[in-house]
Amino acid sequence: MSSKAEIAILIPHFNNPQGLLKSIKSIQEDIALDVIIVDDGSTNERINEVALDIFENELLKLHYIYLSKNSGIENALNTGLNYILNRSYSFIARLDCGDLCVSHRFAIQKKVLCADKALGLVGTYVKYINLEGEVVHSFKTPTSYGEVRNKMHINSMFVHPTVMIKREVVENVGLYPYGYPAAEDFAYFFKIIKTYKAFNIPQYLLYYEINPNGISLSRRKEQLNSRFKILKEEFYWGFYPCYGIVRNFIISKLPYSLIHKLKKILR
């Protein structure tokens, strides 16, 4: 069945139907959108399609893919990308369960991508919120391609659920890489910026929920190891690569509670 939507929003889901409900409810646009929800073998808390389908309308359509067992976010994301590539979508946006979109976020990102043929990916500024929806701190990501290329050697310069990517980028670069547990997005964005321009729109277009069960907290050690592996693979002798290696080594030795406090102070 063909769709009139140019944009597909990819959302992986695992045991978080309430977070998914909040994210879908936050989508407020005047353009056609298709939401591709990939359930990664949820066991305790499965998707409630009846509760979600009330948000469908002429412009917003929901599509569900159910994996038979939990196989990891990389596989869930790639399953969604393959589904999207087999259809006529021109843009692929990301969103995670629990995160909230500002009105017209996707229309704004599409307009920016369409204005520059060399541009392959855009992210946005982010406001971090707790489980009660209160803003904890704000995060401004780099708004120039040059700054992104340099600072990627420190950490990912894109907050994953803020990004929108042109279809051709995925066709040329490929799917999310395996072998980088809990840091597949960092590895993927590194691949993309080698071929395409990428930067962040200087607007707060997403509220990112800090969830104790999220990957950044529950798999922190694994994520740090993967990040260090990526930085070593992308290393060359220069200020940013050297600084990134040293910085990540120091971070790996600090408790997350201290890092979280420093982020709030520095941002």
Q: What does the model show?
A:
This protein is of the alpha/beta class and about 270 residues long. Helix content is about 40%, strand content about 20%. It contains 11 helices and 9 strands. Strands 1, 2, 3, 4, 5, 6, 7, 8 and 9 form a 9-stranded mixed β-sheet that branches. Helix 9 runs antiparallel to helix 10. The longest helix is centred in the C-terminal third of the chain and has 14 residues, at about 220-235. It is globular.
Shape: globular
**Helicity level:** 25-40%
What Rg is obtained from the alpha carbons, in whole angstroms? 18 Å
How far apart are the first and last residues' alpha carbons, in Å?
Answer: 46 Å
Structural class: alpha/beta
Largest sheet: 9 strands, mixed
Spans with pLDDT under 50 lasting ≥5 residues? none
Describe how the helices and strands are arranged.
Layout: E1 7-13, H1 17-26, E2 33-39, H2 49-53, E3 60-66, H3 73-85, E4 91-94, E5 100-101, H4 105-114, E6 119-129, E7 135-139, H5 145-151, E8 164-166, H6 167-173, H7 184-193, E9 197-209, H8 215-218, H9 220-233, H10 239-252, H11 256-266
Parallel strand pairs: 1-2, 1-4, 2-3, 6-9
Antiparallel strand pairs: 4-8, 5-9, 6-7, 6-8
Helix pairs in contact: 9-10
